[in-house]
Amino acid sequence: MTLKTVPVSILYSTTGPYAALGREAVSGALAAVAEINADPAYGFGIAAKIDDPCGRAEAYAGLAQSAIRDVGCRHIIGTLTSWSRKDVLPVVERHGALLWYAFPYEGYEASDSAVYLGPCPNQHLLPLFDYVLPRYGRRAFIVGSNYIWGWEISRIAREVTEASGGQVVSDRYVPLGATEVDHLVTEIRQKKPDFILSNLVGQSATAFIEAYGAFRKSHPDAPPIVACNLSESDLEGLSPEARRGHIATAIYFDRLDTPHNHAFKARMAARQGAGRRISTPFTAAYTAMSILARSIADAGTDAPEAVRKVATSRLFDTPAGPIGIDPRTHHAAFRPHLGLSDEEGGFTLLQSAEETIEADPYLVRSMLKRAAAPHPAALKVVK
Prior knowledge:
Blueprint: E1 5-11, H1 19-38, E2 45-51, H2 57-71, E3 75-78, H3 82-95, E4 98-101, E5 114-116, H4 125-136, E6 139-145, H5 148-163, E7 167-174, H6 182-191, E8 195-199, H7 203-218, E9 225-227, H8 232-235, H9 240-243, E10 247-250, H10 259-272, H11 280-299, H12 304-311, E11 315-318, E12 321-324, E13 337-341, E14 347-352, H13 364-372, E15 380-381
Parallel strand pairs: 1-2, 1-3, 3-4, 4-5, 6-7, 6-8, 8-9, 9-10
Antiparallel strand pairs: 10-13, 11-12, 13-14, 14-15
């Protein structure tokens, strides 16, 4: 088959309660499209179909179906929340399309109609807690957005904390997009936990970080916020005090010191201007679009089954390093990192895994391994 133009759906909310993350993702996906369309080696171009569900979960399925049925998109790069992903999955399954999901999620899922390019709990929460629990203490305060991500990450965090002899002193949820968070800071002041695990998303996360930053001005010994989904884009626009001192785990940080990331940032600087910090959501969507295009080129077709077979049979060089996708679960293996945020809104690397960690979406191998080990496996300190 000779390809000329491949229509691809880009489905992220660029307005609504997590608009900043969606805008970054769309920008990353379009940066990849620009590179693909300018490279004659591909032999085809990408025609991006961009839709904005406005952060309304009920809008995703209809837009996905329209992109597939009316435009001929066989691949969807998109959805940010697990709520929206679970609404889109039945659509792509029914139409034989493929969803490329590139954000951290709670695991306990696998579909032949999805490629999971975001880390699951054994690649984000477990490394984070292996670092935090022995250093800061075992009394956790957990707060999350009131939907699947918040519930499930809280549940796993509680199991890990209690298995280590610790205690969850409070477990609170706010509606997705809510910005009334002062009551959370008040309870933290009263409960005096050793750390706060934030599973908040979008403007809820930024509101909480800003409010907690104001609290820390008069309480410099306040415990840190730790998170599995905190990125550079979440800290933009906040006060320097609010930005500083949070611990995040991610498969990519702007300051990642690798040849692939240096080359990537140089290309993005040439495209968008020097000085812009590259965020994790930007890189995630860029990586998804790039891997899709390389898989289409190798397969010689955009047929989802053929593309999936190629994507799960080779390594891909990415800004986050080499990525391989498990042909059984369609989840990628990653090398997770831990970063400490500073007043500029960037992250200084604290630790990196010594090697890539295979995804264990149902935590079967991971929990058995932890139960058998006398101490959690340590990460390698970045010097």
